Amino acid sequence: MMVDAPEEHLVEPNGSENDSNVAIINPDAMESDTLLATDHEAMKDLVLPPLADEPPILEDQVHTWTVKEWHNLSKKEHGPIFQAGGYPWRILLFPFGNGCDQASIYLEHGFDPEQVPDSWSCCVQFALVLWNPKDPSLYFHHTAHHRFTKEESDWGFTRFLELRKMFNAGWDNSERPIVEDDTANITAYVRIVEDETGVLWHSLNNYDSKKETGYVGLKNQGATCYLNSLLQSLYFTNAFRVAIYQIPTEHDDRMVNSAYALQRLFYQLQTSNQSVGTNELTKSFGWDSRQIFEQQDVQEFSRKLMEQMENKMKGTPHEKALPDIFSGKVKTYVSCINVEYESSRIEDFWDLQMNVSGNKNLLESFQDYVKLERMDGENRYSAGKHGLQDANKGVIFTSFPDVLHLQLKRFGYDYERDVPTKVNDRYEFPEEFDAGAYLSPDADKSESWEYQLHGVLVHTGDLNTGHYYAFLKPEKDGWWYKYDDDKVTKARKRDVLEENFGGPAKIPDTRNRGLAQKKPPLMRAHNAYMLVYMRKSRLDKILKPVTDDDIPSHLVTRLAEEVAQREARKKEREEQHLYLGVKVITEATFQQHGGTDLTAFDAPPEDPAAPRYYRVLRTATMKEIVATIAKDIDQDPKRVRVWIMVNRQNKTIRPDQPVMDLQPTVEETYSRAAAHRDQALRLWVEVAEEVDANGEAIWPTYQGQANGVVLKSDLILLFLKWFDVESQSLRGVGHLYISKEKKVEDLVPIIMKRMSWGDKLPSDEKIQLWEEIKPNMIEGLKAKMTLKTAELQDGDIICFQRMHERKSRLGLGESKSAEEANKNSDRYEDAREYYDFLIHKKLVSFRAHPGKCDATAYPEFDLELNSKISYDKLAEKVGERLQVIPTHLRFYTISASGMPRAPVKRTVNQSLHTILNPSGYGQINMNQRTNALFFEVLDMSLAELDTKKSIKVILLSEGITKEEQFDILVAKNGQVEDLIAGLIKKAKIASEEEGGRLRIYETNSHKFFRELARDYPVISINDYTTVVAERIPEEELEATESAQYISAFHFQGEPNRAHGMPFRFLIHEDEKFADTKKRLEKRTGLKGKSFEKIKFAVVRKQQYQKPQYLTDDDILWKVANEDDYLGLDHVSRARGNGGGDMFLKG
Predict the structure, then answer these.
(1) Is residue 336 flagged as an active site residue?
(2) Of the residues 122, 225, 336, 799, which is catalytic?
(3) Phi and psi dihedrals of 987, rounded to 5?
(4) Active-site hit among 63, 467, 840, 888
(5) Residue 225 is among the residues annotated as catalytic for this protein
(6) What is the pLDDT of residues 167-208, one digit of tens each?
(7) Poorest-pLDDT segment among 434-443, 764-773, 902-911
(8) What does 244-305 look like in DSSP terms, one character per residue?
(9) What is the value of pTM for the model shown?
């Protein structure tokens, strides 16, 4: 039970959030003496002010309840039921307060609790007025609005009025109280309003977008609301969706393929019943958490996405699909007034940036866009043979696209205050407009150029924080919908238009409205920043319904399979409590096992040594489990019995005893088993070698009798493993039963028979026996010792090997030092050594360093190595595999993200284990992969490398358009001259005599830092700058020593968004910038449209100064000061440049 007050996000005109100017209504304030509570019409005007949402009014009702004997009322009272809007209502009163010292009064529906329809709702604005029946001029009221539902049946005011004020005489300077003679009236003014969208005042809890609208939203990953709004806009541009479906991805359906990820996203939006995630798409872009949790520039993202999708379509029949939808043409021209001369160029555009500041509406912005600039006086145009001429300079459109994206320039920079800012001015845009007025006279106007609004993308908030959502019209004549991340709701036309024009906020019409007018108006922080218009004559084409035939079949199949898999996993999870896993070791799996114990219970299912897994009902009996296992191994169930596997104190897992009673359930057997550390029942299965006349199994021990008694003989169950020295392998052989009184040497004939080695070994060979107590405790067995003395029991493992006498320098069962055991890491002569290797073996992946080694020459490979080997032994093993000199190998650890880290330093006590698992618990070490290394094949040994310094050099060619990075090794006592020589050799480029002189310079944050003299020591080169090499341009070679240069850099929009490769540029005295641009084009290597799109400016070194953009008639020599930069303003195409620009890969 709460007061529901309307809220609107307001900001002051300068953009800062502030609620101090909101008019505060003081309910204690007394109304005019002429206004009486009995004058319902006048009171209605007072207590039911216009709502900010302006919903249509369906019905007004007034109901008065006379409350008598107030002090005798119970804790909770209900007034009589009255009708409003066709529904029953009543007043709910807590006369002495609902948990407080004030009267609590509410409005609630009057349905019987059992009769409220599940989906019932009613939107109501209401006021509750408490007044004195004897003096109607004494009253007090509260107003609210609420969406009443079955769950929220009442709404009102817990703290309506303090009890002491109600009963005390002297209300508002009168001599009477409001409650006089223990009697008062409560009047409910109820206004039923129309819920046009179905979500008026809706909390949206448990809201089902698909059910209510037929559409689903997109989940917000953190700060991806801007992405969601644009993606929804593109999705509902049906022609674009079909074009994306037409990109061939059937042979490249990897998640790193952004086209395939976008296809998946669109298909899920089309078919899912719940909101869809964008994780797959952002991962395909190569984004990490930085991009996910930072709001990016929507226009930039849109352009890069379009460019990437267009590239995916190249070479296909649909390569023109996107330009046909989104690309128009604009002509930039200079036309002479007095002579027939015009210079012009036509460019493609994919969106338009419209000025908001200084314009009241979109049509004014278009007029501003095509406004002529007069070139006269000192600014006359150089018209070739016509000389300097008065001219008109401007732009005009030659065509508009079918889908017109208009970016409203709401974000800018206040150069007077030196701060970025958001423009919240009122700016209107029409539902329809005719773009033909902005076309050139010779444009094709045979078809109408009228456009209809189909999308409004909105930003709410200020420059630094905010939220994005979209209003979209999916169909030609249908409803508008609001797409706010995962919620989709219907929207009214005024929500789309008026509410997003920006400008001053509407203050609710109250008696205190004058208070709000004393200060500057509060500006709305929510307003449109992007508009989507569609050409009316092409609507049927653009919005043509997307059918099943448009969707790639492989996409449908793949996603259907994934849905089926998810449903299967979901069902499995839901039914998990009904089932128990059973892991079974068979003779076959044991014979494939090459490690310690009888198996590795966590081995992958495809491993032949992995235990067989059965998912069985917990209520199934052990008899049923034995039958299932017997069928699986093709045996008669009567000949099969299972042993419980238990954890021993030495952390091994061995059979303990057979399950004799098969009537208990699997769960009961699991519960009775000794302490287990597995969620599954673990069993070893035994197959009887003999049966009696009735086909019943005869077991060597634990034989069940007819009377139920189990006979335990002195036989013990042992398992045999063979260590094959020649193949350097260990494998299970099987099991046997033998009396405890037998000696160790009595095992030898059994082993000889099992292995088919005949009756006798050659005279120079012997069989050596070991007990595998636990992985790191392998003890030799003495031949004359009895098994009982050796303390062998059921489930113990005996390992044997054939050994030549001349190699067995240690007697049977004698120990060997750890140093000797690890002396030869390539070949292990006895089982103890091999077991030590098993403990320390590590499967390590080796990859060529991505920036220092050719992956095609050295493909990735894996090696199984002893983690105790030294750095030199590691290099020897890898060198043997790569067939390179081991001393010429350098290794690098790998970060958790797969990127190379610092090179591994070669030290005396270092081992493979310490390389992969550095000591310490720092975050850096935790983020390192422990099973992989990068390698680099060097041109010299590591010892020689220690005398060198590695310098990353970017070599420029074709102006500054082509960059190649090289790692150059230079002697630490060398100079830049040596660096240049090393670069020529490494890059295999022409010498300075043949190709021209080279220079080396440093850059920092995408700006020119300094040029390095050729005798500059390389040891002093800064590790935190970028080192660049280039051929010195011919014009600079010919320049005099007094020539002046300017540092040039690239930026996008604002100078602090620097990107690209900076350079030094020679400037000429008295040279007009039109001629300077020609030299710049040659200097940079940028040609055609790439160069034409660049705007040039002089950028002052002082931070936040506005760039001075240059015209063709400017003279750079005169405009620029000594410390100024030449700025090249254009969109960055580089990935993740210094300006923080967005990148898309995949």
Answers:
(1) no
(2) 225
(3) -85, -10
(4) 467
(5) yes
(6) 888 887 788 899 999 999 999 999 999 999 999 999 888 899
(7) 902-911
(8) HHTS--TT---TT-HHHHHHHHHHHHHH-SS-B--HHHHHHTT--HHHHTSPPPHHHHHHHH
(9) 0.67
